[in-house]
Amino acid sequence: MTLQTWQSLCNKRYRLSLRLFLLLNAFSALFSIILPLRNQGAFTLPICFIVVLSVVLPLIQRFYPKVKINIIFISLIFGSLWAWHVIDKFRLLDGDAASFLLIALLSVLFIGSIAFSNNIVAFLVHSLPVFATCVWLNGEESSMRLICTFALPVLGISIQHVIQRRNDNFAQALMNRLIQERKTLNDLSMLDPLTGLYNRRGLQHKLQHLLAVDESSRFVLLLDIDHFKAYNDHYGHMMGDQALIRVSAALRDAVRSRDIVARFGGEEFMILLNNVNVEEARVIAEQIRQKVYDLKIPHMFNESVATNVTISIGIAPFIDGDIEAALSLADSALYEAKHLGRNHILVSGELQVA
Question: What is the mean pLDDT of the chain?
Fold first, then answer.
C-alpha cells in the first residue's frame, strides 16, 4: 500500500459517509411528509430544502467527482434545516409537544450516529442546532430527558471516534513502516551485497532515470581484474572477496559523484561516465587504473604484468541510449587491451594503447 492508496481509501470513506448521511436525511424527510404528526403541515419549507439537497448533492458528487463537498458544512446546513422544521411544526401543535420534540431529536441523533460514527465534529454540528432548539422550545419541562437523550449518543460517538483515530494512526504508522522497509528492500535488491556497488538491476534503474533527464555525452568503461581466476585459485575465495571489496572502493573514489559504478559480474565492473568527451574519459580511466595499481594487493600469479592486482579497461561511447551496443564495443576494446599485455586501457576503434 502506498500513501496515495491510503489517501484514496480515506476519500472513499469520506464520500460513502456523505452519501449515507444524505440518504438517511432523504428518508427521514419523506417519512415526515408521508406520515405527518397529527396531519399538521405535512410540507414545510425546510423539509422541502432537505429533500432537494439530498437529491442534488449526490448528483453533483457523481457527475463532478473532483468537486469535494465539505461534510462539516453540509452537516451544519442540514442540522439548521431540521431545527427550522422543528420550530415550524412546534407552532402547529396544541398538545403533547414534549413527545414531538423528543421524537425529532431522536430522529436527528439516529441520522448522525449512523452516518458519522467516526466523525464526532460532523455529528455535533448536525445535532446541536436541533438539540438547542428542542431545549429552548421545551423550556423547563422534560429538559433533563432531552439532555440525557443527547448526551448518551455524544458519549458513544466520542468513544468510537477516539478508538477509530487510534486505529487510523496505528494503520498509518504501520503503512509508513512498510513503505520504508519496501524502499530499503528495493535499494538492497539493486546493490551488490559484497561490494555495495550497483548490480545489473540497479544499473538499469539508474540508466532509465538518467536517460529521462538529459542526453549529455557519455562513455562506458568496462573493467576486468587481470588473472583473477588464478588469484582465487591460489589465495582462496575469501582473499578474492577482500580484493574485490578494495578494488570496488578504489573505483568509487576515482570517479565523480555523477558517474555510475556497477559490478557487472564476477571480477568485471562497468562505469558510466557522464558529461565527458573521449579524452576526458581516457584520463579518468587512467586514474582508475593507477588507483587500483596503487592498492598494492599482492598477486604473484600476475607476474607477467606486475606482482600486484591490476585491471584492464575498454572504453566505448554511449550513443542514443543503446547500452547493449556500448557494452559490446567496450567488451571488444577490453579484449584487445588484455591481448596487449593487460594493465592497459583501450578506446573502442583505436589500436594504440592509452
Answer: 85
